[in-house]
Amino acid sequence: LTGSSSIRKWNLPESFPDQPMINRGFGGSELSDAIRYFDRIVLPYRPRIIFLYAGDNDIQRGKTAKQVVADYQVFARRVHRERPSTQFAFIAIKPSIKRWHLWPEMRLANEMIQELCQENGNLHYIDIADPMLGPEGTPIRELFARDGLHLSPAGYRVWAREISTWLKEQNSRLSERRCSLSNFYFFNPISSSRSFRYDPAV
C-alpha cells in the first residue's frame, strides 16, 4: 500500500494479520509524489497487487478532478509498463469532515477513476467513500480522529473490511479461472488420438 498519511498511519498487521502487506505511505503526499518515487516505493517489492490512496491532498491544494485523474493515468501506465501482471487498486478519495467543502470535486475524481477501472481488467476501484457516509449523506463522525481528517480505529476497520472483501472476490475469481482451466483438454493437431489435460499445479 502506498499513498498519503491515511496509509502511513495504518497499522496493517493489525488489520490484515494473514496478508503480507507492506506500508509505503508517506505523509502529505500527492499522486505526483507517488509517480516521482515509484522506483523507490513500489518496484523493489515486486508486488502482486498495488493499493494506492491519493488525491485527497491534491484537491485540497487546488488541483481539479481532471488533474487528479490525469496523474492517476500516468501512475497506472507506469504500473502496466514496469509490472504488467500486477493488479492496481485505487482506494477512493475519502469524504472527511475537515474537507467536506471539497467533496464535490473529490467525488467527481472518484467517479472518473471508477469509470476508467471498468474499462481495464488490471485496474480496480475500491469504494471506501460510500461506507463512510451516514443516512444524511455526510461523514460519520466516529470514523475520524479528532482532527476530522485522519481515520479513527473505527475508520480503519471500514477500510479493512472493504479491502478484505475485494481481496476475497479476487481470490474467488482466480480460483474459478483455475477450475475452469483444469477442465480444458488440449488436442494434438497432428494426432487426434492424443490429448493433454491442463494441470494448474504445473
Describe this structure in words.
With 202 residues, the protein is α/β, with parallel strands linked by helices. The chain has eight helices and seven strands; from the N terminus they run βααβααβααβαβαββ.
In a nutshell, what does this entry contain?
With 202 residues, this protein is of the alpha/beta class. The protein contains eight helices and seven strands, in the order βααβααβααβαβαββ.
Key attributes of the depicted protein:
two-stranded antiparallel sheet; 12% strand; globular; single chain; 5-stranded parallel β-sheet
- The count of β-strands is 7
What would you call the shape?
Answer: globular
- State which percent range the strand residues make up: 5-15%
Strand order of the largest sheet: 2-1-3-4-5
Helix content: 40-55%
Number of helices: 8
End-to-end gap: 31 Å
From the alpha-carbon coordinates, what is the Rg to the nearest angstrom?
20 Å
The largest sheet is:
5 strands, parallel
**How do the SSEs run, as a string of H and E?**
EHHEHHEHHEHEHEE
Query: Structural class of the secondary structure composition?
Result: alpha/beta
The oligomeric status of these chains comes to single chain
- Mean pLDDT score: 88
Instruction: List low-pLDDT spans.
Output: 179-202
